[in-house]
Amino acid sequence: MKFLKEYRDSRLAGEILEKIKKISKKPVKFMEVCGTHTVSIFRHGIREILPDNITLISGPGCPVCVTPNRHIDEAVALCRLPEVILATFGDMMKVPGSKSSLAAEKALGADIRIVYSTMDAVDIAVNNPEKEVVFFGIGFETTSPTIAAAVLRAEREGLKNFSVLGAQKLIPQAIRALLENNEVGINGFILPGHVSALIGIKPYEFIAQDFGIPAVIIGFEPVDILQGILMLVKQVESGTARVEIQYSRGVPPEGNPHAMKVLFTVFEPGDALWRGIGTIPGTGLRIREEYQKYDAVKKFGIEVAESREHPGCRCGEVLRGLITPLQCGLYGKACLPEQPVGPCMVSVEGTCAAYYKYGKRG
Amino acid sequence: MCLAIPGKIVSIEDNLAEVEIAGVIRRVSLDLAPEAKLNDYVLVHAGFAIQVIDEKEALKTLELFKELMEHEVS
Amino acid sequence: MTEKNILLAHGSGGRLSHQLVRELFLPVFDNDALNKLDDRAEVFASGVRLAFTTDSFVVSPPFFEGGDIGKLAVCGTVNDLAMGGAEPLYLSAGFIIEEGLPIDQLKAVVESMRKTADEAGVKIVCGDTKVVERGSADRIFINTSGIGVVPEGVSISGSLAQPGDKVIINGFIGDHGIAVMAERHGFSFTEKVVSDCAPLNGLVKAMLEVSTDIHVLRDPTRGGVATTLNEIASQSNVGVVLREDMIPVRDQVLAACEILGYDPLYVANEGKLLAVVPAQSADRVLAAMKKHPYGVDSAIIGEVVADHPGKVVLSTGIGGRRIVDMLVGEQLPRIC
Questions:
Q1: Is residue A251 part of a domain?
Q2: Residue A1's pLDDT is what?
Q3: Which of A116, A339, A349 sits opposite C336 (nearest CB)?
Q4: Per-residue confidence at B73, pLDDT binned at 50, 70, 90?
Q5: Cα–Cα distance between C227 and C233 in angstroms, integer?
């Protein structure tokens, strides 16, 4: 597999690791913002092979995990409407809302289709003209343009039975919010390669400029991650703070301006509620006035009750890197992958699920 | 937060491309990367090409690695 | 039981399936033969040592690259018997058919069953047919039961793995799951991934001919290699260490897994077996396997250890280590 296998080379990985061990002196905490990094780090056992002075902390970068109950409750309400086919990514099926989950609703008969692409959802709308197809969309800058592209296609093809329940979020300002009350003392950021493939390097400059913290945009294969960590270590040890790109094969400095234009044709920034963090201005995406008819909440007049979060659930603190899952009283006891209480246990890339799956049982 | 994998464009029709990923052929939309050409490698996320892979940069990274290794060995 | 209703995950072969078996079925059916939880029961009938098993097949779509539901139904039951070292003899076949199924398709399925039964050297000696209303089944479901005899001196069970034993697999993992998935998700390949669906009793026989000292045999079907090894680790109260770089996975399977966000260790196989064999006979068994058509790509992929009983640990390609847990729920295609 070109551009994949060579970045899993054990010899290369070993060499880079040796280099890290040689250079790294200071005790440091690096935060991987992105859940895909979290999974890759666990999957390849990277935490175990790093020297003890380097601690990796997982951040808020799993779109499933930061989706508040409210949106799940809305999706549940929508899928109960008899005329609705709810299409969504597999990731969202098992996330518990206040009272139910999409998997449970499907078992009770709701028409819920798991799709791999937003275009599959549009295809379902084309093939089922007598039904209303609602796409339940989550995601960051990587995924949101694909949702916008689906809306634009529906518009082009004059589809009247397609709409979107959106719970998408924007990353850079969430990092700023984390840094403004830097509760954890982060010494460096492992920035998400695929979000960056879309937004480029510029939106992160503030991390180095305003907060003096090094940051590197990193790919997802083990060799990428280790090389990125090496770049962070070099900055830390030399006392510099820059934003750099390790994942240069997929991230040009300017990102993908065309895709961003598609995104902001359909959506505009708004406030967003992040589970465990609260409302962060400017990190949400709402459908622009011109495309209101594709907004499922408005189209179906959905109103859900005040959502409830489990009182003992500490996903919020996990998401901010304040505690590890092992410090949560529910983890591994009341909260298990087969009966998750909080979203960090549901999502494959949730920190709690990754801890549990890869054997951190306290 | 986002899985994306590299694949090679083996055919293009309008805004749809067939991308080969290690022997697997997927139809992907080029709506977000209309500049992608035949034989380009693209990053595929959720059925869309989201970026054209810069082969020179990819080779450069690997070259860097090689140098690093040679340096370490010598 | 934590769930109020049956979810798809209860049938995925993973953690919820196990919960269902242990907490709902076992306490009610409770008997020694069943409680062993091997793929088949060993029972005595008038002094003869019999292996007995049953399995139902609901694959969608019913025809896929490298097989169909009929072939699967014969292989699945033959393999469950063979995993106890038994020689499979007779099968039953029960059909639940959705009204409207083209007779031609049924004929194709039945002919495929006959062909596979011939290859495995078993006879289908009784059967049943029910037809249900459109929508009450997905085209065709098949149940097969089978009996076989267990030869003298053979004692194979999921509870017999010992520290020091080697873990052997008879070839590439994940082919069946990905072939079926490809059909379902409209994937195509430059070089097709074909289901590995095959009757394995011949292979097992060849293995037993070079050594009857085989501790565990099990076919990693639903839930994949990871789930099966977890079962063995927990039944035998031992640990298993896997070497990621030794596990045979085809490039296309790995790529399809990357696309869908799956882990090949959890993808279903229908023509694979995991053998746990004492170290001193491992090379001999491996050599015998490699000579058999269904074992050409066999490899030693790990070993049994006394550490971390009940757990499977993978040493990763880059030298890290991680736990490989049982499948939780069904694998769903994901984007993040």
A1: yes
A2: 61
A3: A349
A4: very low
A5: 10
Flag whether residue B73 sits within 8 Å of chain C, measured between CB atoms. Answer: no
C137 lies in some domain: yes
Number of domain units in chain C: 2
Using a CB-CB cut-off of 8 Å, the residues of chain C touching B2 are: 335-336
Between A and B, how many residue pairs show a Cβ–Cβ distance under 8 A?
132
A335, A344 contact by CB (below 8 A): no
Task: Look at residue C60 and give its three-state secondary structure.
Answer: coil
Task: Give the tens place of pLDDT for each residue, C238-297.
Answer: 999 999 999 999 999 999 998 888 899 999 999 999 999 999 999 999 999 999 999 999
Question: What gap in Å lies between CA B57 and CA B64, rounded to an integer?
Answer: 10
| Count of CB atoms situated within 10 Å of the CB of C92 | 16
Is residue C53 within 8 Å of C117, Cβ to Cβ? Answer: no
Chain A, nearest residue to B59 by Cα = A249
Count up the domains in chain B and report the number: 1
Per DSSP, the three-state class of A102 is: helix
Asked whether residue C184 falls in the same domain as residue C241, the answer is yes
CB B33 within 8 A of CB A256: yes
Do both C289 and C222 map to the same domain?
Answer: yes
A6 at interface of B, judged by CB pairs closer than 8 A: yes
**Together in a domain, A198 and A322:** no
| C263 close to B (CB below 8 A) | no
Q: Domain of residue C178: give its range.
A: 166-323
Q: A180-231: per-residue pLDDT in tens?
A: 877 788 999 999 999 999 999 999 999 999 999 999 999 999 999 999 999 9
Gyration radius of chain A's alpha carbons: 21
Which CATH number belongs to the domain containing residue B38 in this structure?
2.30.30.140
Q: Are residues C199 and C143 in the same domain?
A: no
The answer to whether position C329 is within a domain reads no
- Contact in structure between C307 and C239 (CB atoms under 8 Å): yes
Residues A195 and A258 in one domain: yes
